[in-house]
Structure formats: C-alpha cells, structure tokens
Amino acid sequence: MSRTPPGPRLPTPVQTLLFAMVRHRWLPRLTRRHGPVIHLRIRPEGDVVVLSDLDQIRDVFLSPPTVFHAGEANEVMETPMGEHSVMNADEDAHLRLRRQLTPAFRNSALRGYQRMVARIAVEEVERWPTGMPFSAMERMNAVTLEIILRVMFGVEDEHRLEELRTRLRMVLEIDPAGTGPWLRRLLQRRQAATNRPRVDELLYAEIADRRRADDLASRPDMLSRLLAAPQARELPSDAELHDHLLTLLLAGHETISTALAWSFHELARHPAALDAAARSAAAGADDYLEAVLKEVLRLRPAIVDVTRKLTEAAEVGGYRVPAGWTVMPSILLAHHDPASHPEPATFQPERFLDGGPPAASWVPFGGGVRRCLGSGFALQQGTIVLREVLSRFRVEAADAAPERPRLQHLTLVPGKGARIIVHRLPVAASHAAAP
Ligand code: HEM
Asked: Transmembrane stretches, by residue range (predicted)?
C-alpha cells in the first residue's frame, strides 16, 4: 500500500490560500490530474487527505468515531459556538450532547414548527419589491434568521427578541475559516466580540425564564422541546443549553439561506423547471419543490466539505493515513461525479423525482453519527419558503449571465447575491397555497 496520496507540490502558504479562496475550482483540477484521493498541506489543519469517491466517503462516514474525530477537526468553530457545542465534541460527549438535541428535530417537533415557518415566510415575501432587481441572498438571509429565531424561542418577550435579533446579526457574521478579505474579517471579529457578551446575557435570561415555565409540553418552539418531557432523559445544563442555541443559530441559518438563494437563481434561468415549480406551489404539492432544493444542494452544496481528524493511523481510500492527519470528504466533488449524476453541471430537479438517485450518492448533510441534525427541518423550511414565494411571484433573473459561485466561510454563495426580479401573480394563483 502506497504511503502518501499524490497532490500538489506548491508551498503550504500557497496551498492554504488556494484552498481557502477557490477550492471549488482548484480541487476539481487536482482530481483530474491526481485521481480521487489527494494530499494537501494547508493551515491550520496540516496534512489533509481530500476524498471525492462516494464509496470511500461512505466508508469514512461509517468508520469508528473514536478514530475519525469530527469535533477535533471542527475546533475552529469553538469560539463562535462554545465549548459545549455538539460540533466540537467527540465520542461519548458528542453522543450525549446529540441526544439532548434530538427532541427538537423529531418529526412531531417539525410538524409543530410548520405554521410558524409559513407565517414568517409570508410576512417576509409580502414586503418584497416588485419589478426591480434585488439580492435573493440578502432576503433569504433575513427570512431564515427570522425563522430560526422565532422557531427557537417562540413568541416570547418581543423586546428581548428585537435586541437579540440586532446583536445576533453582528455575532453570526463571523468568518471562522478566515476566508474573507482581512479588513472585513477584522471588523467582523471586533463586532462579534463586542456584541457577544450581551447576546450571552440575553440567551441566559431566556433560558432562566423558560426553565420556570410550567407549560413547556404545549409550546411548539425548539427551546421548549429541548427542556420538555425529561422522563429518562438528561436535561442540558444552562451552559450546554446556551451553546446548543448558538450552535443551532449558526448551523441552521446561512446554510439554508444559501440553498434558497441558489434555488431562485437556478429557477430564474430554467423556465421549464420554474413552470413546474410554480405549478407545484399553486397546487400545494411539495414533491417538485423538494426536488429543486435537493438538486441545488447537489449542484451547489451549502457546505462543500466535512472533516475528520485521525486519532490513530487508518486505511483511507487505499492509503495508510497517519494519526493526526485530517480526512476531508469533499461533498462538492462527490456530487459532480458523472457516474452517479449524469451531466453533473446541469440543473435538473427531475433527478430527484420518483425515488431519485441512490441515497448514498447525495451527501449534502454529511453522514454517519455526525449527519446534520437539522436536515429534515432545513428541507421542510426550504420547501415552505419556495412555496410561499412561487405561489405569489413570477421570478426572473436580473442579469443574463449566471453568477459564479464564491466561497464564503464553508459555504458556496452566488457571486452577486443571486440577483432576481419578481412580478406578482394574479390573485387566484397566489391564494391557492396560502397557509
Ligand atoms: C441546507 C441546509 C443545511 C446543510 C446543507 C447542512 C449541512 C451540514 C453538514 C454537512 C454537517 C456536518 C456533517 C458531517 O460532519 O458529516 C452538518 C452538521 C450539523 N448541522 Fe446542518 N446543515 C443544514 C441545516 C441545518 C439546520 C437548519 C440545523 C439546525 C437548526 C443544522 C444543525 C446541524 C448540527 C447541530 C450539526 C452537527 C451534528 C453533529 O456534529 O453531530 N443544520 N450540517
């Protein structure tokens, strides 16, 4: 067995820069040249083995979490999410924190959030300007932040929620991977650091109030779900609960807003798909809308790769990889494999109708014991927002040329913010899908 996978011979700082700024363009080129397993040297990770083959990626997802540490590999997220974040934990601690979070993501809990999500989506899209260009990314950021805030806290102290909303925007606009221009990064970090203590205070105040409530079982919000029905279940401490809230706010906001922005970008450029989606929205049928989201998450995965740090040497992709190295399944590369997804560069929601491609070939939410906890909520929320927009508006592209993807944090965002123009549909169509 060969010891080290092939890879570029560039100096570490150059590899680090290429990886941070343009890995969505650089890695496909490296794969064509070196094959499906590539060795990189980048900071702060060190030696990294990037995988693009779906079988090898599945093997990593199913490998023992005692050897493949995701929490250790996610260390960079510790400052924003907190030391008790499920993202930063491994092994027993990870399973314990994940168990604490599960009640907020059961199907019964998701059903409880539906109405709230639809109401917020309607309030937001009813304010959209018609007949003039705007950034779908900006609007989607606003709507998904509002959704996660309201779904998390329910309708509580409006005054506190308003302050939390304003300050959280400053705290959430951080760049843990450090990929933005340095001045913006510096300003964002200062803004985040200044606002963080007050955000912490507000979150602890909300937690204290909620612990005193005696009607948790009947409340549909996430925080109540995390605290309700404790039979045989260990409840999170205040510090754990605080970090759970920050983790969910961070993990559950930009990812889905990016997927929605790309959805509008693609639909505006594919008239047949737009017609099918609009018909689906008007009929209140979700299949096609969900297929749009799934295809967008395939074509432009919101998180382009995931990481695992090896606690001991392991066989990965046919190589003996030493302890301390990072293994990085590339979701982006795997989703562009023509063997699993013919014509991978084209937008075809139909792939996901009638059963769609094998589940193992679609991994936007990662896998194994670390698979995204919010995947069901993300798809539900995305489908509702698409339905509320497309049952009210005809969407068109503001610019003729498709937007190039740009890396922002771990997310591949539309280069110009997915600029669209919307035109209001006749009333009959718009009422068909009202909540
Ligand atoms: C389109 C939207 C989303 C995408 C593409 C996405 C993707 C991902 C990915 C790739 C991971 C890492 C999985 C791994 O390492 O194997 C992850 C983890 C996670 N996500 Fe999501 N996510 C989305 C939305 C959400 C939402 C809405 C929430 C919650 C409100 C959420 C909560 C989490 C949590 C808590 C984890 C950590 C799981 C663990 O470490 O055990 N995500 N997500």
From this structure: none
Please state, in angstroms and rounded to a whole number, the distance separating the CA atoms of residues 338 and 336: 6
Mutate to test the pocket of ligand 1, among 365, 370, 371, 377 (most ligand atoms within 8 A of CB): 365
Residues with CB under 6 A from ligand 1: 70, 86-87, 98, 247-248, 251-252, 255-256, 259, 297, 302-303, 306, 364-367, 370-374, 377-378
- SS3 (DSSP) at 134: strand
Is pLDDT at 230 greater than 70 in this prediction? Answer: no
**CA dist., res. 252 & res. 309, Å (int):** 24
- Does CATH number 1.10.630.10 belong to domain 12-431? yes
**pTM of the complete model:** 0.93
106-150 pLDDT per residue, tens: 999 999 999 999 999 999 999 999 999 999 999 999 999 999 999
Q: Which of 264, 304, 253, 299 is nearest to 21 (CA)?
A: 304
- The closest of 244, 239, 209, 214 to 226, measured between CA atoms, is 244
Taking CA atoms only, the protein residue closest to ligand 1 atom 42 is: 374
Task: For ligand 1, atom 8, name the residue with the nearest CA.
Answer: 365
- Are 53 and 317 contacting, i.e. CB atoms less than 8 angstroms apart? yes
Q: How far is the CA of 115 from the centre of ligand 1 (A)?
A: 22
ipTM: 0.99
Distances 21 to 15, 177, 188 between C-alpha atoms, Å = 10, 10, 18
